[in-house]
Design brief:
139 residues; alpha/beta; two-stranded parallel sheet; 4 helices; 24% strand
């Protein structure tokens, strides 16, 4: 298992958690897997990335939950799911076909599908109380 994050502080917390829970994880500091060299192509990419603009932050996301994250990284400009799109573009450049699972919160299914219209992804949505995940199904 590989865990990637741009923030070194986040990686340090993840390393401590992996030791505490006895989980074997490799860590790499990277911006959305750009230029990461894999010994073996991953089967699955799971992402819980920020999306939208600052004003899109949900009430429950305000406060302590994001005080350690730079707003520039949390809410990039452009398409609501632009960070996810960049991740997918980076991974597709690597020419391996992993499956993807994305945390999409309350973003509407049609907006998620639209964001990935440049791919051949067939997305399946799993929702509970409106919040959800999008999973990319292999063809």
């Amino acid at each position: 298992m590989l865990l990637s994050d741009l923030e070194s502080g986040s990686l340090e917390v993840a390393k401590k958690n992996s030791v505490e829970h006895g989980v074997s994880v490799s860590f790499v500091r990277s911006n959305l897997l750009k230029k990461v060299v894999f010994e073996r192509a991953p089967d699955l990419v799971i992402a819980d990335l920020p999306y939208g603009e600052q004003e899109d932050a949900l009430t429950h996301e305000d406060g302590d939950a994001h005080t350690h994250m730079p707003a520039k990284l949390m809410f990039p400009r452009g398409l609501a799911l632009s960070v996810y799109v960049q991740l997918v573009e980076n991974v597709l450049e690597m020419e391996f076909p992993p499956a993807f699972v994305f945390e999409v919160g309350l973003v509407e299914d049609q907006l998620v599908n639209s964001a990935f219209s440049f791919t051949s992804f067939r997305l399946e949505f799993i929702r509970r109380d409106g919040f959800g995940f999008a999973t990319q199904q292999r063809a």
